[in-house]
């Protein structure tokens, strides 16, 4: 439920920034191995994640989503 709230707040902020037709979806679990491909996660952080997160949760440490929105009159 907390993730749903964060998505709703994010969508509201996009609306206040002038975007229309905001859609948040396409949820997909992200594993530690996938997270290691992003520069945000240093090798030290990945090692810490492997050491502190239970092994049965290594395949779902985060959720990535797709956000789509339209900026009215963006082509003018």
- Give the helix tally: 3
Structural class: alpha+beta
Strand content: 25-35%
Spans with pLDDT under 50 lasting ≥5 residues? none
Largest sheet: 2 strands, antiparallel
What is the number of beta strands? 2
Approximate shape: elongated
| Helix percent band | 25-40%
Distance between the termini: 39 Å
Q: What is the rounded Rg?
A: 16 Å
What is the string of SSEs from the N terminus onward? Answer: HEHHE
What is the strand arrangement across the widest sheet? 1-2
Average of the residue pLDDT scores: 88
In short:
The chain contains 3 helices and 2 strands, in the order αβααβ. With 76 residues, it is an alpha+beta fold.
Written overview of the protein:
There is one protein chain. The protein is an alpha+beta fold and 76 residues long. Helix content is 38%, strand content 26%. The chain has three helices and two strands; from the N terminus they run H-E-H-H-E. It has a two-stranded antiparallel sheet. The longest helix has 15 residues, at 2-16. The protein is elongated, with a radius of gyration of 16 Å.
Annotate the secondary structure layout.
Blueprint: H1 2-16, E1 20-30, H2 32-35, H3 43-52, E2 62-70
Antiparallel strand pairs: 1-2
């Amino acid at each position: 439920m907390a993730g749903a709230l964060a998505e709703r707040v994010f969508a509201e902020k996009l609306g206040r920034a002038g975007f229309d037709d905001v859609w948040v979806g396409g949820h997909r679990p992200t594993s530690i191995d996938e997270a290691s491909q992003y520069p945000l996660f240093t090798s030290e952080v990945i090692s810490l994640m492997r050491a502190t997160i239970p092994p049965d949760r290594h395949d779902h440490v985060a959720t990535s989503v797709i956000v789509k929105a339209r900026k009215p009159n963006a082509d003018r």
